[in-house]
Amino acid sequence: MNQPASAYFLQHAEEKAVTHTLSVLVDNEPGVLARVIGLFSGRGYNIDSLTVSETEHEAHLSRITIVTTGTPMVLEQIKHQLERLIPVHRVHDLTAEGRSLERELLMVKVAGQGEQRVEALRLADAFRAQVIDATQTHFVFELTGRTSKIEQFIEIMQPLGLVEIARTGIAAVARGPEPM
Amino acid sequence: MSRELTGAGIVLQALKDQGVEHIFGYPGGAVLPIYDELFQQDDVQHILVRQEGGAAHAAEGYARTTGKVGVVLVTSGPGATNAVTGITDALMDSIPMVVITGQVPTHLIGNDAFQECDTVGITRPCTKHNWLVRDVNDLARIMHEAFYVARSGRPGPVVVDIPKDVQFATGTYVGPKNIRHKTYNPQVKGDLDRIRAAVDLMAQAKRPILYTGGGVINSGPAASQLLRELVEVTDFPITSTLMGLGAYPASGKNWLGMLGMHGTYEANMAMHDCDVMVCVGARFDDRITGRIDAFAPNAKKIHIDIDPSSINKNVRVDIPIIGDVGHVLEDMVRLWRASAPQRDKKAHDDWWGKIRGWRGRNSLAYRNSDSVIMPQYAIERLYDACKGKETYISTEVGQHQMWAAQFFHFDQPNRWMTSGGLGTMGYGMPAAIGAQIAHPGKLVIDIAGDASILMNIQELSTAVQYRLPIKVFILNNQYMGMVRQWQQLLHGNRMSESYMESLPDFVKLAEAYGAVGIRAQTPQELDGKIEEMIATDHPVIFDCRVAALANCFPMIPSGKAHNEMLLGEDVADEEIENAIGEEGKTLV
Q: Which residue in A79, B14, B154, B468 has a CA-CA distance of 20 to 30 Å to B186?
């Protein structure tokens, strides 16, 4: 074992990382997002996607959807650490609780003329993307769907004059009649 | 009861209604309205420290020895940032603390005003929770919420940041109602099925061990009493972390001593070989587990903790029980008594036989000397002199801290204050001040090192001002001993910056502050000088000149398992001495 001299035990077992989607219901108060993000950066957890918005105005509640990657032990930690934050009401691991519905919204700007422009419009139509802005030299498409679909659409648009991408990150909800 | 008060008045009223008698602080521009309010009342006594870091540690010492919430009052900007180390320390060691910070007026926030800093931003990761109060009508509720959060569940520090205009403004005061917090309601009762499963597992154990920690102390004296009952009815061997010392008496027959990096051989070997481990209010810290993949490889593990995030953080456990230690132990003892399990007598005797064998190694043994005071000997003599007295011990961080944990024995909870998680040098003297404020007339000693003590030496002035007869017992080896020990063991004896070349004359230093200085240089004079120290009704700095090159054993070297301990006898003194070059020796 060629470990450098250290006051700490440096090796750690490698477990396989998995990706989970967490839904976090929080009080909509100043600093609450900073608490959540600070927790992730401070403890070295990953954020693959994060969305946040007030969802219940009367009750001052916001919903934060986080997609994160880690070993099962780390994912369990993340859930508990989030629950430990005072303004957090509930944390649900949507992935662990069953197949959740996950959607993302994409806006993509494609610039070009002639054949490429026609092709971009044709493919957008096939993906059921909306045209939300256009001139003779560009389109802005809006597309909603699962991340895999979004990524595929971006890939297809890449050679057709894609110049700018904006995407929201994932919003997710569990299937079935029960609320979170 | 609601009435109109200024923001500063609300702060004081809330402190009184929360039963606060002492606060530790330092005034400044952004808290002057609160200091003015403080001046005009007698219920809350303010202790003026010499630096805000001292206030935070003093509040920790106060909280640790009383179980009450420690309260700190500091100004904005540097006042708040100076307190950050103590706040982080309290977070790591789960000490309940409310820190009130002044802030620049709300209209100046964000403008880089004089003595402005983003206090809630800076303290967000080192508090349980914090608040910036923008409306005076929220202040009373937030103050009461702050105390609730600080002391509930796993205790910890909170910060209430109050802009100066909010302190001046008039608003409605509401008393502390017994409201359920809308989101924070920690579970205190453990799941009975889990506790039953734990009791069954414990009853079948052939080689059980209780591994206890600071959570037992935090749960209150009743939890320590229940722990003693559990040991009584099960006859399990028991060890503890640094933070848990005193929960089970060191004089108890089942006591194995502290475990971990500088724990005893018997404690660590029993941890390694056990088949059932009951972790009570401890958190499997890396100083405890050593090499994690070789930690208690054959043990089923039960973990009692009030903080769900402590469960399965470092070590996977078989039966997690979330709840307050006191509540869970009460159920556990009751269920054990009710089931009166038939234990495997032979396995039990064999296990204790094995433990006796490990004890026989006498892992804390050291070679004493007639000419120089060995640091271990100094602690032993100090302990002996304190026997029969109600004594509170704090420490700084380093070799002296480990020797204090090994050689000063605690039979009661809340008598031991040490910076375990954060390892803050400079903790001990202010913590001793906090303890002495809480326990007037009792013997309070800070066991210190010559390097650590200089990190908060200014607080000696506080002790003198308030006539606090704290004793600062410095094991003076003229090194940063623990740093040097690691350098000797791990860095090819290259003692990079770990030698204290220009130490003050501690006796003169004490006198300069108006305290008493005592020096002991030989083993022969040690007892007399210690007696003199204890008899002195003033703050004392005791400069105990100890063997410069003694090292702290036993020890689990880095990357090793519990059964790979390094014992003192394995490392010859000559080796250590040779490690110091001739040139270095002449300096010593």
A: B14
